[in-house]
Amino acid sequence: MPADLARASTTDLLAELKRRMESPPKKNIILVGPPGSGKGTQAPLIKDKYKLCHLATGDLLRAAVAAGTEMGKAAKEVMEKGGLVSDEIVIGIIKDNISTPDCGNGFILDGFPRTVVQAEKLDGMLTSEGVGHIDHVIEFKVPDATLVERICGRLIHPASGRSYHEKFHPPKVAGKDDETGEPLVKRKDDNEETLTKRLDAFHKQTKPVVDYYAKQGLYSPVDADRKADSVSATIAAILAK
After folding, report:
1. Residue 53 in contact with residue 97, Cβ under 8 Å?
2. What is the pLDDT of residues 177-193, one digit of tens each?
3. Are 111 and 182 within one domain?
4. So which residues are the catalytic ones?
5. At what angle do helices 87-98 and 57-67 cross, to 10 degrees?
6. Helix axes of 87-98 and 70-80: crossing angle, nearest 10 degrees
7. Which InterPro entries match (predicted)?
8. Helix or strand holding residue 107 (H, E)
9. Cβ count near 46 (within 10 Å)
10. What tens digit of pLDDT does each residue of 35-62 get?
């Protein structure tokens, strides 16, 4: 028995054993899927089960700008000029977040990488920071026609972000938020023409990234056109590998 363990009390040893048994193995996960595919439903479940942090790049950018971090300032300057935030800035913001205690068990990355170049840069950053590597890339597969139906019927409560659906999850009173009674709205881009174009672009953009991770044995497609608990069970089986 190592000297440091020999000096530890039984209580301390049991506490450490319990901590190690309760702490899930570290996992770094990328979720891939178009709007309406169910990532928003599954990500919080994965986060809670494996004690991970959820890094949605859009939210990270807004938070970094609001916090006035070095990377946030750089992003704000670019956005104010109407430009696209560079890969280096986005990866820098991800780097800032994965070094926090919340990401100690790993992370769920949502919305990045979108290109093979971004995937390569992400791999390089993870290696250079010594925080491991990507363990799983899970793609949520749903037929485009289903996605259009899901999203075109979506209703949003602007103040809270609560979402409803005219067919699948209607509010108690048509057009009104269940909790406040305030009006629900449809997003301007939640229409069939816009969505069809977005989905076509998504598939063309995503395939090379998916192929990149598939060559590394990290890619798993999931049939997400099912009930949420069935999708959760499939994801759990993937993450148990």
Report:
1. yes
2. 999 999 999 988 888 88
3. no
4. 39, 114, 154, 187, 198
5. 80
6. 150
7. Adenyl_kin_sub, Adenylat/UMP-CMP_kin, Adenylat_kinase_CS, Adenylate_kinase_lid-dom, P-loop_NTPase
8. strand 106-110
9. 21
10. 889 898 899 999 999 999 999 888 888 8
Q: How far apart are CA 127 and CA 175, in angstroms?
A: 49
Q: Which domain holds residue 173?
A: 154-189
Distances (CA, A) of 82 to 3, 55, 72, 78, 85: 60, 24, 15, 7, 9
Q: How many residues does the chain have?
A: 241
Q: CA separation (Å) from 239 to 23, 46, 68, 136, 218? A: 15, 9, 35, 7, 11
Shared domain check, 138 and 167: no
Q: Which one-letter amino acid corresponds to residue 213?
A: Y
Name the 3-class secondary structure at 85. coil
Which among 28, 20, 18 has a CA at the least distance from the CA of 103? Answer: 28
CA–CA distance, 5 with 13 (Å, rounded to integer): 8
* Pairwise CA distance, residues 61 & 42, whole Å: 22
In a domain, 233, yes or no: yes
